[in-house]
Fold these 4 entries.
Entry 1:
Amino acid sequence: MDGFSMIFFIVIIIFSAIIHEYSHGWVADQLGDPTARYAGRLTLNPLAHIDLFGSVLLPLLLIPTGMLFAYAKPVPYNPYNLRDQTKGPALVAIAGPLSNFVLAAVFGLLVRLYPVGSLTAFFSIIVQANVLLGVFNLVPIPPLDGSKVLFAIFPDSLRNLKITLERYGFILLILFIFFFFPILRPVISFLNGVFMGF
């Protein structure tokens, strides 16, 4: 990936992360929790979502490593406001990755419809960025969305395991990123192929 493509990828990751966070807030609002709306976060205005470290500094620091990633400020929400306390948290959590897969599907369709060229190259980068975000966020390690989906189906007997995972989640996530991230690559490659018809 050349320098311009890397910059474009980072920009797309940031805007895709904003849509990801907006989706969490929108679904939470629909399910009875207006926290994100009251906080002014139910908007696609980047200024409401940009995180100085996650959206600016982290991508710049990662460029030399070839590992491109960024995130936006998490949208606040109060699960106790949700009308459905059982399924609600899982639906709010899954909304973020689902929005990324929808974006990947839309731009993957454009890759199929347009003749191969610079435009389809940019569309394919958008697909790749969104597949990366969607798959990564489904990893069941706190604070990622996958953990919230997992916890929603955890029986009460596993409450202590949930507390332990939440306590050490950040450490586990760092270990995963540096040592186990390659296990996601086959999934990411497969989904890229599915969305773009390769």
Entry 2:
Amino acid sequence: MKIALVSDLHGNMTAVRALEKDLDRRHVDAVWCLGDIVGKGPNSHMTFDWAIRHCEMILRGNWDEGIGLRQFKRDGFYYRQLGEARMAALLNFPLEKRVMLSGRRVRLIHGRPVMDRLYYIQDSRELWLPLLGEDTDLLVYGDCHRQGMRTLTAQIANIGSVGNAMGVPLVQYAILAGVPGKGSAPLDLVFVTLPYDREEAVAEALAQPGLPDLDDYIRELRTGVYSRKKGSFGKKEEVL
């Protein structure tokens, strides 16, 4: 079974269209999304609809939950774009999935809100061990938008971001291939980096007046450097 693991689409349909072409070429058996299908980018309604159509499984990310709960007053742009039905659906996505592949116990999460904060692959062993426990051989997550892998008492893999990749500003995702069930067999995890037209993505953003933090978002698309300033989210949302 060959599964495409994608995460952090973040309203960037230019990147998602490039992803879709690559998935068609690779003939994967399923697409699983590890969350954050909305927010940051200009077309959250479109990336939401794409994920619903193409992904067999979608997890709830921190942006999905924050927007679904209307946590920040500044995010009205996304609320209006998504509409009530999509907003409600964001909160119904599960927080994690567990699967047995090639005899390996695989746990999939977005990161936050399961994690108490943003975790990076290189964070301390003591921080990671409680998330691994004795029932996980491979933990796969998104959230920090940077691909990487590490081995502690289990393996930890970050699959990067489709629509808002940091470090290397390309479409980032992964392919997990193994045999369903408890039988011992090879388990492959392949990181994919995919070029796409970032200037077209910039034009996509410029075509949506009122996108929050537009300049920071464009800088992230072009450079892969995180650009939002601490505290830029403002106050928690009041009842609308």
Entry 3:
Amino acid sequence: MRNFKIFLYLVPFIVIGFAGDISFSAEIRNRVVAIVNDELITLHELNTRVKEMTGYDPSDLKAMDKGGYLETRRKIVDLMIDEKIALEKIRELGINVTDKKVDAAIEMIKKDNHLTHEDLIARLKEDGLTYEKYRANIRRELERVELVNFEVKSKIILREEKIKEYYDKHKEQFRTNEKVHLAAIVLIQEDPSDQDEARSLNRKAGEILARLRNGEDFGELARKLSQGPGASEGGDMGFFKDSELNPKLRKVIRDMSAGEISEPITMPNGIQIIRILEKQGGGVRTFDEVRDAIHGILYREELNKRYSSWIRELREKAYTKIIF
């Protein structure tokens, strides 16, 4: 619990005893929403977690869908209660996951998935996660592994045929990142909120695409008309890994072949027309290459099942109260 734990214990009594001196909004911000044995979960902690897990501020989420917001909030409170119970047990057992163990686990994840550190950071950014938050998540998972190993006597054993079956059903999951060499004609929209400018830009992009389809050279048109990087080199933007591309752009070019030209792609700051100059690498990794990674996936699935079952049993013995 945070350093202000004692203060939070006093909040309900302070509010009752000095209601006339403390604003209603202050009480709402600091109130307790759940009790787990002798631990508290505050509204501030809950709201922070809601934003982390949904990407939305709680007030915005509530405005969009009140029913969905209430259901989401309840599920997240339940998750936080389970975490408090598990953390209490972790402390009781003296489980300590060192930084060295966290580093080793992350290195194993990168190795199993053929990721460089830069690839991992890019993937995390797509998911809205910082590297520090990711490390905290890995540490929590390692604590759960040790907790389950300590509490559940039977070991998790995965049959080879089950691992192979997973591979056969999820081969696309193990496709290696290819490198793609791109050229682009970029038209910048000065004011993203200006609808007239947007329509004018769309017309211009359509005219450029028509000229390309009539045989005009992509590089020459890029030199004359592109406002983006590499315009003077015929729009050449160089090679990109799959993980380095904007998700929308990645989706568009996924099925394109070398030499193909895309339809105009609307982006937040304008429009792009992409030409694939070259594709390198790619392909599905062999079973032997990904066996350890699949073992890790299936192990975590089984671990989660056992952990959930164990937590339910522990929760039945704990004192919990949700206060909404």
Entry 4:
Amino acid sequence: MRIYSLLTKLLTGVAFLGAISNASAQKNWNAPRIVTTYCSGCHGIDGNAQLPYMPKLSGIDPAYAERKLTAFEEISPPVDELFSGLLNLTDPKKEPANVTRQERINMEGVAHAAKPGEMKEALLWYAKQTREPGRSGNKRLLAQGKELFMDGVPAQKVLPCQTCHGRDAQGKGFAPRLAGQNSEYLEGQLAKFRQGDRRHAPEMTMVTRDLDSDQARAVAAYLQSHD
């Protein structure tokens, strides 16, 4: 009797896992090949990256994403990794389009390997995907982050983030959507802006230069929690 019960549970579990697998396959069966082959490893098939230091691409504005990808496409592939490393050691801040070495490792090969039109297919695919609901966190930290996003810090001459990114952080114009984005990724980007390592967006360097690390963590946490 006990063996029968265990067998029943096992078969039920297998069926449940099979249902999940089938549902996932049905959801993603029509994703472009470049998404399933390259992009999904870091960003997920639906654009909801599970790696906290990677950006979510779901619901992204295609025009903004295309401008970002152009930076990777403009860089000539390095002769080899050693040569690339030597270039970084001699002058790490003078890379084309201000792309960091880690981002180049992740993206440069894909940008050059993709056939014409494939990247556009990927961008349009991700633009149509639904971003997962925001994740909650420490209430005090979220409240601080919301205040920073909405009102800035006048005493530090830090402008409100909503001015460019919209009250609901959905993005507008050249400013990307930030709502629901991974907080660790956002913190990393804010650190680069504050250090002056994002010369393609001088307005962000100016806005964030007086933001301290605790404030950056708070606004990143708020944005991750915001739908």
